[in-house]
């Protein structure tokens, strides 16, 4: 699985002009399933997102995790993270899981995150979404769970 994490002061996702998920300080996680991914990898991804130390402690060092801070987690499906741009100017998305497998794994990420963390919001799988965020830092971390 692939994720792009952004430490945010705030973030929200809208569909057809209506806000469907919104958080204050925390992490925005753009998530993509690949064809061979499993629910075990989804669980590892959630663990990493919740435990990654990207928030400042009292000394200003990145020593605190999302679990430590109690911040929000906004999870948005994004198959374009699997883009292959090596063959020309039009990206190929063959590296992304088929829609039903992608949906199943995205829903597993959400379920596991909600079981393990108090503030979890989400986008709508497969929808045309608008994501607004204030990147804090900026801090942007790519993750790949094999």
Key features of this structure:
146 residues, alpha/beta, D-tyrosyl-trna(Tyr) Deacylase, Chain: A, two-stranded antiparallel ribbon, 24% helix, 39% strand, globular
Please explain how this structure is put together.
This protein has 146 residues and is an alpha/beta fold. The chain has a single domain, classed as 3-Layer(bba) Sandwich (D-tyrosyl-trna(Tyr) Deacylase, Chain: A), CATH 3.50.80. It has helices at residues 39-51, 66-69, 99-116, and strands at residues 2-15, 18-23, 26-32, 55-56, 62-64, 72-77, 120-122, 129-144. The strands form 2 sheets. Strands 1, 2, 3, 6, 7 and 8 form a 6-stranded mixed β-sheet that branches. Strands 4-5 form a two-stranded antiparallel ribbon. Helix 1 crosses helix 3 (99-116). The longest helix is centred in the last third of the chain and has 18 residues, at 99-116. It is globular. The N and C termini lie close together (7 Å). The mean pLDDT is 97.
How is the topology of this model organized?
Layout: E1 2-15, E2 18-23, E3 26-32, H1 39-51, E4 55-56, E5 62-64, H2 66-69, E6 72-77, H3 99-116, E7 120-122, E8 129-144
Parallel strand pairs: 3-6, 6-7
Antiparallel strand pairs: 1-2, 1-3, 1-8, 4-5
Helix pairs in contact: 1-3
